[in-house]
Amino acid sequence: MKRTNRLTEGNILHTLIRFAVPVFFTLFLQALYGGVDLLVVGQFAATADVSGVATGSMLMSTVTMVITGLSMGITILVGERIGRGEPDEAGRAIGGGICLFVVFGVLLMVVLLAGAETLARLLHAPEEAFAETVEYIRICGGGSLFIVAYNVLGAVFRGIGDARTPLFTVMLACVINIGGDLLLVEGFHLGAAGAALATVAAQAVSVVVSLAVIRRRKDRLPFHFSRRSVRFDGRIIALELRLGLPVALQELLVGTSVIPRPAQQVFQSLL
Questions:
Q1: CB count, 10 Å around CB of 183?
Q2: What is the pLDDT of residue 266?
Q3: CA–CA gap between residue 78 and residue 186 (Å, rounded)
């Protein structure tokens, strides 16, 4: 039997609250990654590492919010197709989203790896913590595909009405991030690099767990998906961008509002 949560049946307010509360806590926990890194590094590492994590996590938090906003296009389109009783079209929406985010993820990774020093300067990283900031950005940038993959998977789950699985995987990732921070920062004295590695590892685990859940439920999913579903369909990708870009832009503006003013002016001049 195919499993989906029908959000238009029963008590609408109760259903919306039951769906929205896990989404709220999922986004809240995602935003805590940098805070956890900063807390542990502040206790067990040097001042330069603390400054590097503070600056780098501010950037990565904004990146994560933008990805989350953009992935809303997948959530909306998948939910709409399932609601219309079109499981094949829902599968194509997921496949188009995968293509879109593979390109986006690779470009993001290249920008963060190659442009880490430039970004650190834009963020006005202190000279004494410049190397730590660059290192944090580069390590997180190298693992940015995991951030992208997790948000695509979370968007699919929410599109079929399941907001609890993304919450579970993010809670698990937070526990792993805390444990990894303590191990790498306190145990191995890796400072900002250790905090970044712990964050990437936690994101990777959340992706693996999400994929395992999908594999386990594959016969009960309310959409039809195969390798042929993964293709560059301009119509689907354009629609997902039209739905997701306004949310992503909003998150970008919110994120850049807390970035140091010189960098903020550069980012906003590009909009």
A1: 16
A2: 39
A3: 43
Contacts of 248 (CB under 8 A, 6+ apart): 66, 67, 69, 70, 72
Beta strands in 55-196 (DSSP E): none
Residue predicted with more confidence, 104 or 262? 104
Band of pLDDT at residue 13, cut at 50, 70 and 90: confident
Question: Does residue 248 sit within a domain?
Answer: yes
Give domain status of residue 265, yes or no.
no
131 Cβ neighbours under 8 A, 6+ residues apart = 48, 52
DSSP E strands, the chain:
none
Q: Please report whether residue 266 resides in a domain.
A: no
Say if CB 158 and CB 166 are below 8 A apart. Answer: yes
Whole-number Å distance between alpha carbons of 4 and 15: 13
Q: Tell me how far apart the alpha carbons of residues 11 and 14 are, in angstroms, rounded to a whole number.
A: 5
- The rounded distance, in Å, linking the Cα atoms of 220 and 153 is 16
Residue 204 lies in a domain: yes
pLDDT tens digits along 128-157: 999 999 999 999 999 999 999 999 999 999
CA angle (44 as vertex; 41, 46 as ends), nearest 5: 75
pLDDT of residue 1: 36
Range of the domain at 186: 12-256
Tens digits of residue pLDDT in 60-94: 999 999 999 999 999 999 999 999 999 999 999 99
Taking Cα atoms as reference points, which of 93, 97, 81 lies closest to residue 4?
81
How many domains, the chain? 1
